Amino acid sequence: MPKASTIKAKEGTKAQLLEAGARIMTEKGYNHTGILEILQETGVPKGSFYYYFASKEDFGLRIIDDFAEAYSQTLDEYFKDTSLSPLNRLRKYCEDGRKKFEAQECRKGCLIGNLSQEMSDQSEIMRVRLEEVMNGWRDRFADCLKEAQKQNEIPARYDAKALAEFFLSGWEGAVMRSKVTKSTKPIDTFIKMVFEKLFVP
Amino acid sequence: MPKASTIKAKEGTKAQLLEAGARIMTEKGYNHTGILEILQETGVPKGSFYYYFASKEDFGLRIIDDFAEAYSQTLDEYFKDTSLSPLNRLRKYCEDGRKKFEAQECRKGCLIGNLSQEMSDQSEIMRVRLEEVMNGWRDRFADCLKEAQKQNEIPARYDAKALAEFFLSGWEGAVMRSKVTKSTKPIDTFIKMVFEKLFVP
DNA sequence: AACACATTAGACCGGTCGTCTAGAAATGTC
DNA sequence: GACATTTCTAGACGACCGGTCTAATGTGTT
Hints:
Two copies of one chain form a homodimer.
Chain A: H1 3-28, H2 35-42, H3 46-52, H4 56-79, H5 86-103, H6 111-119, H7 124-150, H8 160-181, H9 185-198
Helix pairs in contact in A: 1-2, 1-4, 1-6, 4-7, 5-7, 5-9, 6-7, 7-8, 8-9
Chain A binds a DNA duplex through helix 1 and helix 3.
């Protein structure tokens, strides 16, 4: 009996469930994703699911938390990179997002954005959590834009938080349009407009 | 027997189904909306549904078509209103959209936008139809912006179609953010940024 | 070995889903 | 008014869902 690997698999069960859940829900949404499907993909038996999670909603909430935590580190990589100017950090973030989206054939998009659209009217508890996560992102963008204002990369006459909200919602909308057109053009247009017209002195 | 009203009800059965379907799907999405639910709301018996529609997907497609046709007239009301300047037509469109969204307690949002997000990766035939509808809107916006360029309301150095795409995706994103924050603030910010920064000479 | 505790097995439930077919009701034709 | 045709309805059907349950198994401690 491979004792060590068995133990390792067990320890990772919850994480496996969360990973598969996030991946499948990003593509298929919350309602269209079945627990059975996640169980089959991970090889975890059905009986175990409700040992780890109280309900599907609880599962969804933990997926959001997990994703938010991991993504926070991704944001660090971009926004703590002092080798680039604040605006160029944002630009790199956009361009890498574009590349990633293209690499997955203009599918899926953003887990948090998708769930926000789908779940805001369906589950108040998920809505609140989703709002917190996205507000956190907006505030990160706002910090970056404030920095850009300090360095005179962008005009100081607009509230950085409003600019960040506009940027975030515009990005999410562009991703949605890119999904439905199966092309990166809407994202390309977003990047062009933001950096050539919106973020100019 | 109230023959006339019976006949009328029958003639309207399909339209009733489509109306209720559009209303419920706007709020709950395609996957989370049950046919039974629509049937109960309209009083139409279950067996009738598949007489009028080949499948749920076909039903969804017809809802999209119906909505697109009706919405095209709504767009006419705004964009054929020559008593306003082109930019003010667009502004009125935004502000009325904001009011409508607020009136329904920051819920629902845009049927086509919601379905685009939800269905693009799930049904190719719906994706294509959704893309056509939204591209049509974008082109209407672009025509309005071209007119605005002619009248020197906005700078001519940007392609009106790109501007329109940016406007459309930004609007959809702002509605999504407003749904999740249960506030019109993201929409307000969008309107402010678009008309004070993006659409300025 | 005996114990408590963590985890898994998988049957089971009530419910809803989308689909289908038989036939009732309405309509048209002669 | 009888018959044929089309239009519409009734409700059963099987598949699958999220969620729950009890029994069994594995693990670590003493």
